[in-house]
């Protein structure tokens, strides 16, 4: 990956806190979506994790080729269907944190 491509890459951590009694439903819904999202143009990584500190909380670690790819993902039918269920599944709105990779910028 070139420096320009690395600079354009969008890294994202999304935290999804389920409503009481909805953890399994949220996890199954996310897992059903993962293969579809991974095939989207510009998807570099789309990884679902469950928090060990807060069981039931889903933490998504994502990497997208650029902001346009992430924007396309957000409008894709699969994610739109999930987002439409957030009010029913989540106790709070999703927490999204965009990241910039710094490892390459530090001198050795």
TrEMBL record:
ABM domain: residues covered: 10-103
Keywords associated with the record: Monooxygenase, Oxidoreductase
Keyword Oxidoreductase set for record: yes
Pfam family name, one: ABM
InterPro entries, per the entry: ABM_dom (IPR007138), AI-2_Isomerase_LsrG (IPR050744), Dimeric_a/b-barrel (IPR011008)
Cross-referenced Gene3D superfamilies: 3.30.70.100
Single GO MF descriptor: monooxygenase activity
Name this protein carries in UniProt: Antibiotic biosynthesis monooxygenase
């Amino acid at each position: 990956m070139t420096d320009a491509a690395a600079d354009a890459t969008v890294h994202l951590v999304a935290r999804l806190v389920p409503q009481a009694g909805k953890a399994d439903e949220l996890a199954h819904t996310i897992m059903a979506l993962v293969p579809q999202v991974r095939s989207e143009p510009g998807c570099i990584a789309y990884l679902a994790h469950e928090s060990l500190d807060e069981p039931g909380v889903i933490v998504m670690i994502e990497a997208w080729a650029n902001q346009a790819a992430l924007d396309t993902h957000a409008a894709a039918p699969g994610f739109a269907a999930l987002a439409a269920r957030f009010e029913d599944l989540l106790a709070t709105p999703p927490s999204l944190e965009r990241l910039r990779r710094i490892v390459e910028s530090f001198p050795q």
